[in-house]
What we know:
Shape: globular
Number of helices: 4
CATH class: Mainly Beta
Helix content: under 10%
Oligomer: single chain
Amino acid sequence: MSLRPRINLKILPFLTLALAVLTATEGRAFYESIGAKSVGMGGAFRAMADDNSAIFFNPAGLTQTKRYTVGTGYTLVNSGSENFHYLSGSIVDTKTSPVGAGVAYIYKKRDRDYDQQTEAQEVAVALAQEYLRSFHLGVTTHYLWPHRKGWRLDASALFIPSHYIIFGVIGKNLVHVKGDQREVDFGLGSRLGEYVNLDFDLLWLPKAKSDNLGYNLGIELVARKEIFIRGGYSFDRSDRDWYGLGLGWRMPRGSFEYAFRREVGGSDVTGHWLEIAVSI
């Protein structure tokens, strides 16, 4: 019996329908906190990675959920001296077959123009394949412009040996824009029954001479199978530690997510994430 996965090529055009309109800073601090659920868990999402933000955290996670999802969101980030505005919209199909796919468009706009680089854009395309129900592989390719024009490539894997344990790994910037560094992230997640989900991430820059490790810790508490309370902390290697808090409400045909983030250590940077999704 062959273990090679069977992919129905006729459905691929329909699977590759995810669209996310977001804003993001080019620095690492906010790049890893795309998505309200991940922000609420302190950026610890490499193992859980079960919503549209898996395109960035761990594309292999796209195949964890089996549904059509249409989502939209808004984010306001205040750095103390200027604001960033985020608008998001997404459509994802992971129900038709074991193949999962996503496309994201990222747009950054600053209120101020003192550095003449108030705008940046990125397109990301992700594909994922499920093998034997417990092993998932994924890739994401990014194209950035206009200031840091070029390509990035990420590759990831997710291993789910049981309902209680999830292992995730992602190699980021395997192909990268000049000035970026290759990165390897590891995630360990645990579903403790129906009421507690945990995620711990280790972020590693292999070629960095110092400050090459970061850590994210996140917890999600589930009440009545539909209310989610989240908290998390990020130990950032650039000394920009931050914490996140979040709330979620999951309905039979959709979800509502809110998250708050604040940097610690005297920083005034705060952010608010609001997302609504409809599943069919």
